[in-house]
Structure formats: structure tokens, C-alpha cells
Amino acid sequence: MKLKYIIALIVVAVAVTIIMSTAGDASSYVTFTEAQEMAESGDAKSIHVVGTLKKDTQGEVVGVEPSEDKLSVSFVMVDENNREQQVFYNEPMPADLLRSEQVVVIGSYRNDYFVADQVLLKCPSKYQEEEIS
To answer: For residue 52, what is the domain's CATH number?
Structure first.
């Protein structure tokens, strides 16, 4: 075989190996019920859950409790199946958490709490078009 064919074969093998290793890390969105079932079955990988913060009848966010030192926060989140779940985030409260339209938490279940490693926010002000007069 020529040297350029051997090099091309090695490049293809490396590319396939990289794709296969990153595909295993990809995570899809699940509900809190599915996330809890995964945790109970021993699956400890990070899980993405999408939902909204719990609101009262007037539309005000309820259930957000920053710690006394403001270095962590817990909040009640409602997933797409309307299941409410207490979420603990061991970081300071994100600035736009109370204004967010949607919340994505990435983490896992620990002792009946969902512990978030990351909190991603979708704020409506960033995505709404403004009318120009």
C-alpha cells in the first residue's frame, strides 16, 4: 500500500473513534420521572431536564429559596409532564432565573432531590421581536 492510503486510513479510524466516544456523552431531554428511574437503576450520568419554574395563580414565581450566604439556591421546577420537583443548585442564583421562560437543568438525582450541575435559562426578552416605529 502507498503511504498516503495508510495515512488516510489512520485519519478515518481516528475520526470514527472520536465520533463514537462523543456520541456516548450526548444526552437527550427527559422528564423528572424518567430521570428518577434512571437514577434508581444505577445510571449516574448527567441528565437534561427541561421545564419552567413553579408559578402561583397570579403568574408569580414561587419556591425559589437562595441560601443565607447566597452561594446556593433551591427552586421548584415543573417538567413537561407537570411534575413538580425540588432542584438544588450549588452555585449562586443565576441573575435572570426569576424572569426565565424556560429552564434546563443538567444534573442527577441524589436523595429525592435533583441536584443540578448546570442551569441554562431561556429569557423571553432575548427572543421577542421589538416593534420599531
So the answer is: 2.40.50.140
Tell me which residue of 99, 94, 104, 105 sits closest to 127, measured CA to CA: 99
Residue 67 — left, alpha, or beta (φ > 0 → left; ψ -120 to 50 → alpha)? Answer: beta
Containing structural domain, residue 94: 27-126
* 1, part of any domain: no
What is the radius of gyration, based on Cα positions, of the chain? 21
Residue with the bigger pLDDT between 46 and 50: it is: 50
pTM for the structure as a whole: 0.70
